[in-house]
Write a structure and sequence with these properties.
alpha+beta; two-stranded antiparallel sheet; two-stranded antiparallel ribbon; 1 helix; globular
Length: 67
């Protein structure tokens, strides 16, 4: 089985507070402390932007959560 590229490094299991965010009308389950850039790939959403030269789909720019 292939490991997902984006995954939580620490699985807090049922102890992490769960919350719901909405992205383009879709309910996404996240955990307290997740950035949006971390919660969306964890929910299987991979395409965030189009590349400037080729318009190829891309992931969040840096994943630092500072933007």
């Amino acid at each position: 089985m292939e490991r997902p590229l984006f995954r939580r490094l620490i699985d807090v299991g049922e102890t992490g507070a769960k919350l719901t965010i909405y992205f383009e009308g879709q309910a996404i389950e996240a955990r307290a402390g997740d950035t949006v850039a971390a919660a969306l790939p964890a929910a299987g959403i991979r395409d965030f932007r189009a590349g400037p030269a080729s318009a190829a789909p891309g992931s969040p720019f840096c994943m630092a959560g500072a933007c």
